[in-house]
């Protein structure tokens, strides 16, 4: 029963250090079970988030994972008895009774920003470019004057003198509101290759949030183009995304196949150390990214599923994969 849970989260929050509400259904604080980091008093790796109509507690430090009721019982048994009583009185103690939560419509009407551009399929150059890469040109837009287009949404470029065309990759939030976009240059001399413009600063720099199912494993790939070739995936559009704050319970990192790239190896190593799952490409794969593997005739889904590792096994695989 969500409103009872929310009420008791509020009541127990006084006992939770550095407690904060990150989103409507996501709370973050120092884990009271393990005490969180001893060295860094600012680390907050305990989370309460909503899943299938109930709140779940998870700690990314000690790995604890339990329902809110069990969590509350450990933190404050007295409060827990009250909580149980209140739920009992609401007649909602039986299993499977929590699904008929009435939907309250508190949401402010949001003006959804749209990309006011032609589709990439309508421009011959971008259409050919995307088709050659095996990508769907209807998923992207085309701006013949990229700087001008950006400035219409957000003051970005002071100087629009050397304006140029780019493929525009829209980034939407879960509710399909536009949170930003990336511009991919068509002319190789036009640097940088990708430009990311965020319209909503508090949103994570991720492509594909609008299409994922959080109940299924989520693949996190390196680029939006790759992401359109992987079922249930998002793409990183910036290095500063805190995936843990999103409350996902099952996600898998997919980095490019660059076993000679020190930075790439370090990234893989870091997520393994965090206890996350990661795809480590088998040695017979020569292509450097998902897009090239797709063009090389590989079955991407099978490749990903059969090469996902974590923990010690991932560490060993990394040793045999890296070429430095
Ligand atoms: Zn913990």
Please characterize this protein's 3D structure.
This protein has 324 residues and is α+β, with helices and mostly antiparallel strands. The protein has three domains: 2-89, DNA Primase, Chain A (Alpha-Beta Complex); 120-203, DNA primase DNAg catalytic core, N-terminal domain; 208-321, Dna Topoisomerase Vi A Subunit, Chain: A, domain 2 (3-Layer(aba) Sandwich), CATH 3.40.1360. It is 27% helix and 20% strand. The protein contains ten helices and 15 strands. The strands form three sheets. A six-stranded mixed sheet has the order 10-12-11-13-14-15. Strands 1-2-3-4-5 form a five-stranded antiparallel sheet. It has a four-stranded antiparallel sheet with strand order 6-7-8-9. Helix 6 links the parallel strand 11 (218-221) and strand 12 (233-236). Helix 2 packs antiparallel against helix 3 (77-89) and helix 7 (262-273) packs antiparallel against helix 10 (311-321). The longest helix is centred in the first third of the chain and has 13 residues, at 77-89. The model is unreliable at 95-111 (pLDDT under 50).
Query: In one word, what is the shape?
Result: globular
The residue fraction in helices comes out at 25-40%
Query: The CATH topology of the largest domain, please?
Result: Dna Topoisomerase Vi A Subunit, Chain: A, domain 2
How do the SSEs run, as a string of H and E? HEEEEEHHHEHEEEEEHEEHEHHEH
- What is the average of the pLDDT values? 89
The tally of strands reads: 15
- The amount of beta strand, in percent, is 15-25%
Using the coordinates above, name the CATH class of the largest domain: Alpha Beta
How many DSSP H or I helices?
10
Subunit arrangement of the protein? single chain
């Amino acid at each position: 029963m969500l409103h009872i849970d929310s009420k008791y989260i509020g009541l127990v929050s006084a006992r939770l250090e550095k407690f904060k509400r990150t989103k409507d259904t996501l709370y973050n604080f120092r884990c009271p079970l393990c005490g969180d980091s001893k060295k860094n008093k600012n680390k907050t790796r305990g989370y309460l988030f909503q899943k299938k109509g109930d709140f779940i507690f998870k700690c990314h430090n000690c790995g604890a994972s339990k329902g809110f009721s069990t969590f509350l019982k450990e933190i404050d048994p007295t409060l827990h008895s009250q909580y149980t009583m209140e739920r009992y009185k609401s007649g909602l103690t039986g299993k499977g009774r929590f699904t008929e939560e009435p939907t309250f419509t508190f949401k402010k009407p949001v003006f959804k920003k749209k990309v006011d551009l032609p589709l990439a399929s309508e421009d011959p150059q971008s259409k050919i470019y995307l088709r050659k890469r095996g990508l769907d040109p209807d998923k992207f837009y085309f701006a013949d004057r990229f700087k001008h287009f950006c400035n219409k949404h957000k003051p970005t470029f002071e100087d629009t003198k050397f304006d140029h065309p780019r493929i525009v990759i829209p980034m939407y939030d879960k509710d399909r509101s536009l949170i930003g976009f990336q511009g991919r240059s068509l002319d190789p001399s036009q640097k940088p290759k990708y430009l990311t413009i965020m319209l909503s600063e508090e949103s994570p720099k991720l492509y594909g949030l609008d299409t994922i199912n959080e109940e299924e494993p989520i693949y996190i790939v390196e680029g939006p183009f790759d992401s359109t070739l992987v079922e249930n995936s998002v793409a990183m559009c910036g290095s500063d995304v805190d995936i843990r704050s999103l409350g996902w319970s099952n996600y898998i990192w997919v980095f490019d196949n660059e076993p000679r790239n020190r930075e790439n190896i370090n990234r893989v190593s870091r997520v393994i150390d965090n206890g996350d799952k990661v795809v480590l490409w088998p040695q017979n794969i020569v292509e450097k990214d998902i897009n090239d593997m797709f063009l090389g005739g590989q079955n991407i889904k099978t490749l990903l599923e059969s090469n996902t590792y974590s923990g010690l096994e991932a560490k060993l695989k990394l040793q045999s994969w890296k070429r430095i």
